[in-house]
Amino acid sequence: MNTKEVAEKLVTWCKAGDFESPYQELYSPKIVSIENDGKAEGAYVEGFEGIQKKGEWWQENFEVHNTTVSEPIVADNWFSVKFEMDTTHKPSGQRSTTSEIAVYEVKEGKIVKEQFFYDEQGQ
Q: Looking at residues 55-73, what average pLDDT do you find?
Protein backbone atom coordinates (compact mmCIF):
# COMPACT_ATOMS: atom_id res chain seq x y z
CA MET A 1 0.00 0.00 0.00
CA ASN A 2 1.10 3.54 -0.61
CA THR A 3 0.85 6.33 1.97
CA LYS A 4 -2.52 7.57 0.73
CA GLU A 5 -4.02 4.07 0.94
CA VAL A 6 -2.64 3.55 4.47
CA ALA A 7 -4.00 6.95 5.53
CA GLU A 8 -7.45 6.29 4.09
CA LYS A 9 -7.67 2.86 5.75
CA LEU A 10 -6.64 4.28 9.13
CA VAL A 11 -9.22 7.07 8.91
CA THR A 12 -11.99 4.69 7.81
CA TRP A 13 -11.38 2.41 10.80
CA CYS A 14 -11.08 5.30 13.26
CA LYS A 15 -14.32 6.88 11.99
CA ALA A 16 -16.02 3.51 12.60
CA GLY A 17 -14.66 3.49 16.17
CA ASP A 18 -12.21 0.66 15.45
CA PHE A 19 -8.87 1.71 16.91
CA GLU A 20 -7.46 -1.84 17.14
CA SER A 21 -7.53 -3.07 13.51
CA PRO A 22 -5.04 -0.42 12.32
CA TYR A 23 -2.40 -1.79 14.70
CA GLN A 24 -2.81 -5.29 13.29
CA GLU A 25 -2.76 -4.40 9.60
CA LEU A 26 -1.14 -0.99 9.15
CA TYR A 27 1.59 -0.72 11.80
CA SER A 28 5.19 -1.87 11.60
CA PRO A 29 6.36 -4.14 14.45
CA LYS A 30 9.04 -1.47 15.02
CA ILE A 31 6.49 1.34 15.47
CA VAL A 32 7.54 4.42 17.44
CA SER A 33 4.74 6.32 19.20
CA ILE A 34 5.31 9.77 20.71
CA GLU A 35 2.98 11.99 22.71
CA ASN A 36 3.79 15.69 22.19
CA ASP A 37 7.57 16.03 22.75
CA GLY A 38 7.99 12.50 24.16
CA LYS A 39 9.56 13.69 27.43
CA ALA A 40 6.83 12.78 29.93
CA GLU A 41 6.79 9.28 31.43
CA GLY A 42 5.22 6.85 28.96
CA ALA A 43 5.16 9.49 26.20
CA TYR A 44 7.68 7.61 24.02
CA VAL A 45 7.13 3.93 23.28
CA GLU A 46 8.52 1.49 20.74
CA GLY A 47 7.11 -1.72 19.27
CA PHE A 48 3.80 -3.47 19.67
CA GLU A 49 4.42 -4.18 23.36
CA GLY A 50 4.85 -0.47 24.05
CA ILE A 51 1.73 0.36 22.04
CA GLN A 52 -0.25 -2.31 23.91
CA LYS A 53 0.80 -0.94 27.32
CA LYS A 54 -0.08 2.58 26.20
CA GLY A 55 -3.52 1.37 25.05
CA GLU A 56 -4.14 -0.43 28.34
CA TRP A 57 -3.22 2.71 30.29
CA TRP A 58 -5.60 4.76 28.12
CA GLN A 59 -8.51 2.34 28.66
CA GLU A 60 -7.89 2.24 32.41
CA ASN A 61 -7.84 6.03 32.70
CA PHE A 62 -10.29 7.39 30.13
CA GLU A 63 -13.87 6.80 29.03
CA VAL A 64 -14.39 8.00 25.46
CA HIS A 65 -17.85 9.45 24.74
CA ASN A 66 -17.24 10.61 21.17
CA THR A 67 -14.42 10.90 18.64
CA THR A 68 -14.36 12.96 15.45
CA VAL A 69 -11.75 12.13 12.78
CA SER A 70 -10.76 14.37 9.85
CA GLU A 71 -9.82 13.27 6.38
CA PRO A 72 -6.05 12.69 6.05
CA ILE A 73 -3.64 15.19 4.56
CA VAL A 74 -0.92 13.29 2.66
CA ALA A 75 2.58 14.50 1.70
CA ASP A 76 5.00 11.91 0.30
CA ASN A 77 5.61 9.37 3.12
CA TRP A 78 3.75 11.41 5.75
CA PHE A 79 0.13 12.09 6.60
CA SER A 80 -1.74 13.89 9.33
CA VAL A 81 -5.19 13.54 10.86
CA LYS A 82 -7.08 15.75 13.31
CA PHE A 83 -8.83 13.96 16.18
CA GLU A 84 -11.32 15.55 18.56
CA MET A 85 -12.22 13.49 21.61
CA ASP A 86 -14.84 13.95 24.30
CA THR A 87 -13.52 11.97 27.27
CA THR A 88 -13.88 11.54 31.01
CA HIS A 89 -10.74 11.02 33.09
CA LYS A 90 -11.86 8.05 35.21
CA PRO A 91 -9.76 8.74 38.34
CA SER A 92 -10.96 12.35 38.69
CA GLY A 93 -14.33 12.20 36.92
CA GLN A 94 -13.35 15.30 34.92
CA ARG A 95 -14.92 15.44 31.46
CA SER A 96 -13.15 17.37 28.71
CA THR A 97 -12.78 17.77 24.97
CA THR A 98 -9.33 17.44 23.43
CA SER A 99 -8.25 18.36 19.93
CA GLU A 100 -5.03 16.86 18.58
CA ILE A 101 -3.07 16.52 15.38
CA ALA A 102 -1.58 13.09 14.67
CA VAL A 103 1.34 12.86 12.25
CA TYR A 104 2.27 9.49 10.76
CA GLU A 105 5.30 8.28 8.80
CA VAL A 106 4.88 5.39 6.35
CA LYS A 107 7.66 3.16 5.01
CA GLU A 108 7.17 0.06 2.86
CA GLY A 109 3.39 0.23 3.31
CA LYS A 110 3.46 0.32 7.13
CA ILE A 111 3.19 3.08 9.73
CA VAL A 112 6.61 3.29 11.39
CA LYS A 113 6.07 6.43 13.48
CA GLU A 114 3.15 8.31 14.99
CA GLN A 115 3.30 11.52 16.96
CA PHE A 116 0.42 13.33 18.63
CA PHE A 117 0.37 17.09 19.23
CA TYR A 118 -2.13 18.66 21.65
CA ASP A 119 -2.37 21.14 24.51
CA GLU A 120 -1.86 19.55 27.90
CA GLN A 121 -4.95 19.68 30.13
CA GLY A 122 -5.02 22.54 32.61
CA GLN A 123 -2.81 24.86 30.54
A: 93
